[in-house]
Amino acid sequence: MRGRLGELEAAVMDVLWSVDASCRVREVRSHLAPARPLAYTTVMTVLDNLHRKGWVRRELEGRAYRYRPAASREEETARELRDLLDAHEDTETVLLHFARSVSERESAVLRDALAGPDRG
């Protein structure tokens, strides 16, 4: 299990998920400001921690790294749901409660997904 994100880590991941390209520390920092005026080194440390935890990938460009999410927001959310199910003894009951709580549209998506790999 990769573990939950702290508040600042989640804010940084939101930035990375919201842009279509990899980002340098400076770019992430500018997306966080002015709501979160942070030091460059703080953002760099958060990105380094996210890399160490497996949440982001990075590649060296010149003297600076460019960061991008290791997985999409949707993939991470699905992984978190899987972790929650794995942590519970009675997954059948949890799934039944969940199934009763979904909307008609969500129910249709689940039915289509379960019908076969070539659908949905």
Automatic annotation (TrEMBL):
<protein>
    <submittedName>
        <fullName>Transcriptional regulator</fullName>
    </submittedName>
</protein>
<dbReference type="InterPro" id="IPR005650">
    <property type="entry name" value="BlaI_family"/>
</dbReference>
<keyword id="KW-0238">DNA-binding</keyword>
<dbReference type="Pfam" id="PF03965">
    <property type="entry name" value="Penicillinase_R"/>
</dbReference>
<dbReference type="InterPro" id="IPR036390">
    <property type="entry name" value="WH_DNA-bd_sf"/>
</dbReference>
<dbReference type="InterPro" id="IPR036388">
    <property type="entry name" value="WH-like_DNA-bd_sf"/>
</dbReference>
<keyword id="KW-0804">Transcription</keyword>
<comment type="similarity">
    <text>Belongs to the BlaI transcriptional regulatory family.</text>
</comment>
<keyword id="KW-0805">Transcription regulation</keyword>
